[in-house]
Amino acid sequence: MRHFFLMCVMTALAAFASQASTADAARKRLQLTTVAQPPLGSTQQGPGFLEQVAREAFRRIGREIDVATLPGERSLINTESGLDDGDLMRAPGFEKAYPDLVQVPEKMGDMDFVAYAKRKDIKGPITWDTLSNYVVGYAVGWKIYDRKVKARDVAKARTLDELFPLLDLQRADLILIDRWQGQYAARMHGAAVRLIEPPLASSPMFMYLNKKHAAIVPALSRALAAMKADGTYQRIYNSTLKPFELRQEIP
Questions:
Q1: What domains, with CATH codes, occur in the chain?
Q2: Model pLDDT for residues 127-153, shown as the tens digit of each residue
Q3: pTM over cut 0.90
Q4: Which of left, alpha, beta for 7 (phi over 0: left; psi -120 to 50: alpha)?
Q5: Is 76 exposed, middle or buried (0-12, 13-18, 19+ CB in 10 A)?
Q6: Phi and psi for 58 in degrees, rounded to 5?
Q7: Torsion of Cα atoms, 243 then 244 then 248 then 251, to 10°
Q8: CA-closest candidate to residue 122, choices 17, 195, 26
C-alpha cells in the first residue's frame, strides 16, 4: 500500500514537473512577425536573412522564436497590441507612432529604397521630387512611400507579387520597393526591368518588440552585436543577401 502511495505521488510530481517545463518553454518562445519577402523573408526552402539572424540572436539569450509573414499594417498592429511579440525589421522612429513598441538598438541591417522601370526612356537618378513626373506603384503598407511619394498618380499593389506586373500592364511608369526584395522578385519573375541607381533613400533597419519584452532588449542588442563581431552575421548575409547586392543599372 505504501509502495502504491509513493508511486502515485511520484507520478503526480512528474506530471507537474512536465507541465511546468512545458509552460516555461511556452513563456520563453516568442511569436515574431515580418512583412518581408525573400531573400529577407523566408521561403518554403528555408528561413531568409531576417529569420536566420533573429533566431540566432534569440538563441544566444536563451529564447526561441516562431516567425509569421503578415501584411505590413497588420504586423505592426499585432506587435503593438501584444498579440504578437515583435516585428523583425522596420525603419527607425516607429515607436513614435506606435508607443507600445520598443526598438532593439543594434540594427538588423541597412535597406536601400529603390525604383524599377521598364520604359527605356526613364533614366536615373530618380529623386522624391522627380517622382511627380510619373505614375508610381508600390505595395500597401510601406510607410516611407506613403509619406514621401508625391507622384502624378499612384497605383498600389496589395502584395509584392502584384508589384512588377504593374510595369508589364503599363499601370505604372516606376515601381518602388527595396533593393533586396526587388532583385529577388525581378529574377524569380523574369521581369525585363531596370534597377534605377542611386537609391531614393537608404536607412538602417531595426527589430521592434512589444514593450512587455523590454527587459530582454539590452541582451538581444548585445547578442546581435556579438554576431557581427564573431562573423556569424556576415556568414548569414553572404548566403542570403550577397547574391542580390547588385549596385548598377540593369541594361
A1: 2-109+205-244 (3.40.190.10), 111-202 (3.40.190.10)
A2: 999 999 999 999 988 989 999 999 999
A3: no
A4: alpha
A5: buried
A6: -70, -35
A7: 90
A8: 195
Q: Within the chain, which residues score under 50 in pLDDT?
A: 1, 3-6, 8-26, 249-251
In angstroms, the Cα distances linking 104 to 167, 232, 244 are 37, 18, 26
